[in-house]
Prior knowledge:
- By secondary structure, the chain is an all-alpha fold.
- The chain has three helices and no strands.
- It has a domain of about 45 residues.
- Helix 2 packs across helix 3.
- It is extended and about 45 Å long.
Amino acid sequence: MISRRAFAEQLALVAAAPWFLDDVRPAPQQPQQQQEPSALAKALAGGVRLRYPDRFTPDDLAAITRSIDGRLRAIERLYQTTLTNADEPDFVYSVYRGAD
């Protein structure tokens, strides 16, 4: 029998797994062509380089640039997903800030 504490720990690990396993996934069978990172990804990585000039090697910055570019591409794919009326919320919540 599993204790409540052990169950809660396993549940937390399962919930956090997507963030930690993002870079551990096995390589695909067919080699993918490396795409040049977008200008926005390069600019954001340049901001990281300027903010922390002594912490990253050029290889680290290249990996950071590729990671940022991958996230930006995922966001673009997410934006291209069309929603039906059933996917949208029934109401929109807005904070009442008093009379204008």
